[in-house]
Amino acid sequence: MAIWFSRSRNIVFSLRHNLNLSGILIKRDYSPRPAFTNSQLSSKSVCLDSFTSLRHESTAVEKQLDLVQQSDEEDPQELNFPGGKVGYTSEMKFIPESSSLRVPCYRVLDEDGRIISNSDYIPVSEKLAVRMYEHMATLQVMDHIFYEAQRQGRISFFITAVGEEAINIASAAALSPDDVVLPQYREPGVLLWRGFTLQEFANQCFGNKADRGKGRQMPVHYGSNRHNFFTVSSPIATQLPQAAGVGYSLKMEKKNACAVTFIGDGGTSEGDFHAGLNFAAVMEAPVVFICRNNGWAISTHISEQFRSDGIVVKGQAYGIRSIRVDGNDALAVYSAVRSAREMAVKEQRPVLIEAMTYRVGHHSTSDDSTKYRAADEIQYWKMSRNPVNRFRKWVEDNGWWSEEDESKIRSNARKQILQAIQAAEKWDKPPLTELFSDVYDVKPKNLEEQELGLKELVEKQPQDYPPGFQI
Amino acid sequence: MWGILRRSAVDGGGFSASSLRRTRFSLVSARSYAAGSKEMTVRDALNSAIDEEMSADPKVFVMGEEVGQYQGAYKITKGLLEKYGPERVYDTPITEAGFTGIGVGAAYAGLKPVVEFMTFNFSMQAIDHIINSAAKSNYMSAGQINVPIAFRGPNGAAAGVGAQHSQCYAAWYASVPGLKVLAPYSAEDARGLLKAAIRDPDPVVFLENELLYGESFPISEEALDSSFCLPIGKAKIEREGKDVTITTFSKMVGFALKAAEKLAEEGIGAEVINLRSIRPLDRATINASVRKTSRLVTVEEGFPQHGVCAEICASVVEESFSYLDAPVARIAGADVPMPYAANLERLALPQVEDIVRAAKRACYRSK
């Protein structure tokens, strides 16, 4: 069977070249004639007859020549189905559930912060590198202090990004300020990079009257349209199809910008992940999907989340260009996000980046991860695979950073954050009028009436309300 | 016979239009319309409204399953693809969650999507985006994220389509602060309210009715003008009366008007209020009417518990208690998933006779 096949293939090949019928079987407008059936093909003579008869109908398409010569090696014939031409094979072969080799991870810096020789990467200037490092260090200090504040009962809730500082800062550094960010909830570093101040972070966590979010949301649900950073929304993965929509809007308005959205490994199980990626591909929307694969979705390990080789392999299923990157390598993340962003905008297509990392902290302050994972596993990642230390080594080796700079940035950040917290804690909560505003664009009558009613009630019964209650 | 005739309505939409037109002529002559000789189907009214809004504002675009090439599952978006192109009339893959999310995202970024659900029953698959994202974003972001999106499509029962295609979602969406919920009845309602919905900076849920698409209504010159718009939150008194107030919305308005005719024969003057807007609810008009008639019968197609009627009854009892001369009455669909068999379906929905009976009971004319 196999021998016969190769002979017939050779005949096809030689005939084609002799008769110069390059496109005979791969014509674009093949509609009137049905594709060869298996029974037809099994007869050598029919092959020859068909060639000579089809000669008259061949409309050789020069472009197809490459296709023909390529597919000649594997599949000499192609079948016409909705969705385009597809080669066929008579060997019943299932695509394996996973390839023997996992998709490799793109990295530039080794664990000692040294650039791996012959690395492909976009160079980072001293100014940019120092700025990136300062932000990574600030993010670390911020996470630590706010976490402690929650433990002390000063704020109700907090989510840290410990272990993911490189993803946070390097991705933000690689984007343009016009790129619209739809976060999940572990990306405050992106907002920090864009200029949201430590005081603003504190205000949001305390929900005071200076909070740009007017005390409407739980801590860490920051948002700022000045910084093109959409307010964090709790339901998981809803930001993915929304990002496709934002991308579509940017595409229609021909803006030099893309949508960038973040998701964790767990979030990729949501239906919205499928919808968002599929749609972005079909609409050819400029969206960069960044998946932070940190190994854990609260207590669900990735082995219980999916059976695929992570998330990067899913990109191709949607027709999306994808890359797996070492999320703890700031330079690799920077290069990957920068390139993805250019592709998204110039080619008007979505791109998927899977950033491998580890969630060093607990899922949130409502979680104690030592209950479901080994304490020494956490320690290992915290100490030996720390992205901030790794980048610091590189910056120091370049002579751009010193011990002095280190203690300065850390003590400054610490001081600023503590001051911000102290101030935010003292300030009043939002006034009563903010209970009823922004439900709609214009406050409707029923809410105006309710607000009036409540004001009157507070004035009439002040003993039922705390002293100095702000109307 | 009712059942058989009902079924043909699904295919041609002709039944309801033709039989009701007979009764409609008498109503037309009873009302005074400025140049009321022009008629328009609800379908054309919706189509023209979308067309005009798309023409006026390049940010408006239509999205949904079958809205483009197929001209719309119910032909509401007929001709739009040809006129505005595939970028503005977008045929989506089958994922309500997906395209609703995309619409919300596009609205966040400043476009004005008009998202079509083939039926609001399918909006269940996208309800998180509608409620947790669209409805609440303006509030949660403290005014930084506006969502000028309109969700539209057929709502409630059609004819012979079973439980998963017949539910009325007015009460579900109207309970959510942050959304506006509209339910047109006539062609004028359809035009004016859809234009208002598309122009509105807040997310609007626009509940149409499949059986009304083919119905023709007289339409004034004013309503045909491209700048025509109806205010959101204002109910319309379709028929004045002094004996009993009947409030309802969508297809039931037609039933209520027929019931009012029957009641008039027995000397009962029913005031029929077409709510038009479920959220915000025009409590002022409803209460003013009840204070005049002292009796309330509220009608809806949807399930009784926690329904729109329940809210109206609560509002009237709270605000106009001392004006009531009889207990408030609710007429709603049966508390069962909609059955398919035509006779059962008829029993599961309010009929004109039910409205007449309830009104008479409120007037102490029957038990």
TrEMBL record, chain A:
Catalytic reactions of this protein: N(6)-[(R)-lipoyl]-L-lysyl-[protein] + 3-methyl-2-oxobutanoate + H(+) = N(6)-[(R)-S(8)-2-methylpropanoyldihydrolipoyl]-L-lysyl-[protein] + CO2
Xref: InterPro entries: Alpha-ketoacid_DH_E1_comp, DH_E1, THDP-binding
Enzyme Commission no: 1.2.4.4
Enzyme class, first EC level, given as a word: oxidoreductase
Main location (coarse class): mitochondrion
Names of the cofactor(s): thiamine diphosphate
Pfam family, one: E1_dh
Subcellular location: Mitochondrion matrix
Keywords in alphabetical order: Metal-binding, Mitochondrion, Oxidoreductase, Potassium, Transit peptide
GO molecular function list: branched-chain 2-oxo acid dehydrogenase activity; metal ion binding
Gene Ontology CC: one annotated term: branched-chain alpha-ketoacid dehydrogenase complex
Dehydrogenase E1 component domain ranges (all copies): 135-430
GO BP term, pick one: branched-chain amino acid catabolic process
Quaternary data: Heterotetramer of alpha and beta chains.
Family per record: Belongs to the BCKDHA family.
Protein name (database record): 3-methyl-2-oxobutanoate dehydrogenase (2-methylpropanoyl-transferring)
Taxonomic classification: Eukaryota, Viridiplantae, Streptophyta, Embryophyta, Tracheophyta
From TrEMBL, chain B:
NCBIfam families (alphabetical): PRK09212.1, PRK11892.1
Protein name listed in UniProt: Pyruvate dehydrogenase E1 component subunit beta
Functional summary from the UniProt entry: The pyruvate dehydrogenase complex catalyzes the overall conversion of pyruvate to acetyl-CoA and CO2. The pyruvate dehydrogenase complex catalyzes the overall conversion of pyruvate to acetyl-CoA and CO(2). It contains multiple copies of three enzymatic components: pyruvate dehydrogenase (E1), dihydrolipoamide acetyltransferase (E2) and lipoamide dehydrogenase (E3).
Reactions catalysed: N(6)-[(R)-lipoyl]-L-lysyl-[protein] + pyruvate + H(+) = N(6)-[(R)-S(8)-acetyldihydrolipoyl]-L-lysyl-[protein] + CO2
Coarse class of the protein's main subcellular location: mitochondrion
InterPro entries (UniProt xref): PDHB_mito-type (IPR027110), THDP-binding (IPR029061), Transketo_C/PFOR_II (IPR009014), Transketolase-like_Pyr-bd (IPR005475), Transketolase_C (IPR033248)
SMART domains: Transket_pyr
Location in or out of the cell: Mitochondrion matrix
Organism taxonomic ancestry: Eukaryota, Viridiplantae, Streptophyta, Embryophyta, Tracheophyta
UniProt EC number: 1.2.4.1
GO cellular component, one term: mitochondrial matrix
One function term, GO molecular function aspect: pyruvate dehydrogenase (acetyl-transferring) activity
Residue ranges annotated for the Transketolase-like pyrimidine-binding domain, each copy included: 40-215
